Amino acid sequence: MTSNYIQEVFSLNGKFAILTGATGGLGSAMAIALAKAGASIVSIELPNDPNSASLAQAVSDAGSTFQPFYCDLGNAEELRSCFSSIWAAGIVPDILVNSAGVMRRNACEDATDEELNLILDINVKSFYISCQEFGRRLLSLNRPGKVINIASVTAFQANKNTSIYSTSKGAIIQMTKAFSNEWSSKGIQVNAISPGFMTTPMTEAYSKDTVITSYLMSRVPMARWGAATELNSAVLFLAAPGNTFTTGISVAVDGGFCGK
Predict the structure, then answer these.
(1) Is residue 179 part of a domain?
(2) pLDDT value for 160
(3) HSE of 72 in the Cβ direction (CA atoms, 13 Å)?
(4) CATH number of the domain that residue 187 is part of
(5) Within a domain: residue 187?
(6) Of 27, 34, 143, 208, whose CA is between 20 and 30 Å from 197?
(7) Is residue 24 included in any domain, yes or no?
(8) Burial class for 49, CB neighbours closer than 10 Å (0-12, 13-18, 19+)
(9) Which burial class, exposed, middle or buried, applies to 140 when counting CB atoms under 10 A from its CB (0-12, 13-18, 19+)?
(10) SS3 state at 68
């Protein structure tokens, strides 16, 4: 009886999960978790992504299917065309996870236009376009769906030398609320996850820096870095069919950072 209930609430069998950034540290962990729950994985990624083959194998090992579609997320025209290709392939939208992200560290006064354009194009504009294209398709089909945007605790407490990144993640929190306000009454739930300081390829250099780690961990009640897989329970909850009344929020997975 218990297993039947869990299956009813959390099973993603027959669902399609579309992800940006699925080949990254956090994205791959979430993609595999969604696959283990039964979802077919659709990855929007760069051509010749070096991590694509290993992710495809992990998804297959989880008993699910993996379909890559290619584009430069920083190019709005390419991204919109990529979604058109996804729909043309007969993929039905159920879940969207926006996980792509880039970061550059420097002082506010030293940030360049190139860095500004890169970070905002990937971290904000691609999220907006992906939400928009996914939502348009759901609305045209009169279907419910789940959008999960990966933000960051820096949206709430900005760190030094990450001004553009923190700005971009603050925008994701407001974007999530705005889309939720317009779409939740139509069955489209839009939520965010705000990871804390997680060990990924993007943060590897910082996690190995004893000075940076000492400073950051002094601000985290659990006093450790998080693992990428520790986002899995949050993404599965927000994607779950049993989650029907949660929308417009950000779930902090941060070792207590935001609660301090």
Answers:
(1) yes
(2) 82
(3) 6
(4) 3.40.50.720
(5) yes
(6) 34
(7) yes
(8) middle
(9) exposed
(10) strand
Q: How far apart are CA 218 and CA 32, in angstroms?
A: 31
Q: What is the SS3 assignment for 106?
A: strand
**Which of helix, strand or coil describes residue 177?**
helix
In 3D, which of 202, 193, 196 has the Cα closest to residue 216? Answer: 196
Residue 125: C-alpha distances to residues 121, 146, 168, 172, 231 (Å): 5, 19, 9, 10, 23
Instruction: Provide the domain limits for residue 21.
Output: 2-253
Q: Are strands 198-199 and 226-227 parallel, antiparallel or unpaired?
A: parallel
Secondary structure (DSSP) of 76-139: HHHHHHHHHHHHHTTPPP-EEEE-------B-GGG--HHHHHHHHIIIIIHHHHHHHHHHHHHH
Residue 214 within a domain? yes
Number of domains in the chain: 1
**For the chain, how are helix, strand and coil distributed in percent, rounded to 5?**
50, 15, 35
Q: Is 70 a catalytic residue?
A: no
pLDDT of 39 reads: 98
Catalytic residue of the set 5, 70, 128, 165:
165
pLDDT digits (tens, 9 = 90+) for 130-189: 999 999 999 999 999 999 999 999 999 887 888 999 999 999 999 999 999 999 999 999
C-alpha distance from residue 246 to each of 18, 77, 148 (Å): 20, 32, 11
